[in-house]
Fold:
Amino acid sequence: MLQKFGFTQYESQVYEAIFAQEEPLDASSIVNHSNVPKAKIYEVLNRLIDKGIVLTTMHGKKKLYTAVDLQSVILKIKADFEKDIEELNAYKIKRTFTDEHIWTLKDETSIGSNIEQLMAEADTSILFLAWNEKMEDYRTLLEQKEQQGVHVEVLSVGGLETSLTNKYALIPMLDKLEPLQLLIVDHAYLLFAGIENDSWKAIKTMSKPIVKAMTDYFYHDIALTQITKKYGDQLLQDEEISKLLARLIY
Structure:
């Protein structure tokens, strides 16, 4: 049974041989009771001592060994397992290469899952543009990432109630608009989604030129949002500028 939890066959045999005896055993006796080769016995005993399930003491000039109670071993195995799970759960594998391919996603659920995963794995920054209905789906996660020290900036079309520090709300100038989602994570990962033929489609890439261009696009929209908010009434009085703004801001 111990072998199912990472112990070798020899370790299992030695532990059982020691545990089954009422008195502590020396190495020679353990060899006889465990059928582990004499040449291997000290190596196996030392591993069991290091694992904390065999104890040792000196009796005169002889070294004796005794086994920790099986229930204590079970508790130790359980505690070690839970600790390993926590460490594995906290461990992040970061890509060490740049994938220049442009990948296509066609399912709305898959797009949403990819957005959530990219946000969750963000280390330094998140830039996110979306209509307020979609933005709300990720609001809690975005707020958590900001609390963890990630720089978060969002541009919500239609506005959003959130505790985020860097938030911008764009009230569109046109009534009929097709929604989109733009996510840039750590200035390295990009996902851009929109609706085509009544279905969500998206691209996902690490291509540096595209990431840079879409980062500029994001801040371009923030700039337009702030300019129109502050000077909108004046700008809209100019027919030429009004037409340009209507084309630029969705």
Notes: The chain has a mean pLDDT of 88. The chain is about 50% helix and 20% strand. The first strand starts at residue 54 and ends at 59. The radius of gyration is 31 Å.
